[in-house]
Amino acid sequence: MDDIIDVKGLVKTFGDIRAVDDISFGVRRGEIFGFLGPNGAGKSTAIKILTTLIRKDSGDVIIDDLDLQTQADEVRRIIGYASQEVGVDNDLTARENLYIQCRYYHITKERSKQKVEELLKTVNLVEAGDRKLSTFSGGMRKRLDLATALVSDPQILFLDEPTTGLDPKNRKELWDYIRGLNHQGTTIFLTTQYMEEADQLADRLCIIDQGRIVEEGVPEDLKAKMGGDTITIGFREDGPTILAKAK
Prior knowledge:
alpha/beta; Rossmann fold; 2 domains; six-stranded mixed β-sheet; four-stranded antiparallel β-sheet
């Protein structure tokens, strides 16, 4: 399987802070690839570089044979991005939010109408399509935000901590949507601080900390490598007698 994203020696600094510290990795076409790490590890900085939102200091990034440095406009046409912060307008309905997003991509009015209905169906918000977002739950807002990232039919979808702040039910629902998109052929790059989420979704992942990749592989292998502590509990022969006397 060929790599749709190829990163070599990526570096980004903010003053004295080396947020992304000489990292290299590849993302295979059609997979779900994850960056797992704590807050401040460099996950969001890396994803913002790949989505052309901030400039790298050094390194090489190729996305679907396009050079990020010299072909940023072309890269933007084939990617979608949903940030940690939901970027939808509370004063508009779900349909209005999606329609405006379609116009940003110069999609015709007729096609926009079709596209909006397709996306509402994809994220299971058809019945809530004419409600203002101020009436939406956190999970519904996240799903609509994901839909806005799909307007351009991206080959690669970048999701920056997509389930942060969601309850377990909404988190599982969003996982299902992400898997469904991937099964339709979309390559997905997600960041997360939840090991369970990485384990559930990622075909492969990198563990990143302090701007550096410390491990890379499939979740099963990484879990086996990390291992865990073992706690052994024993009971004294006179334990029950002592407990009985304590009563």
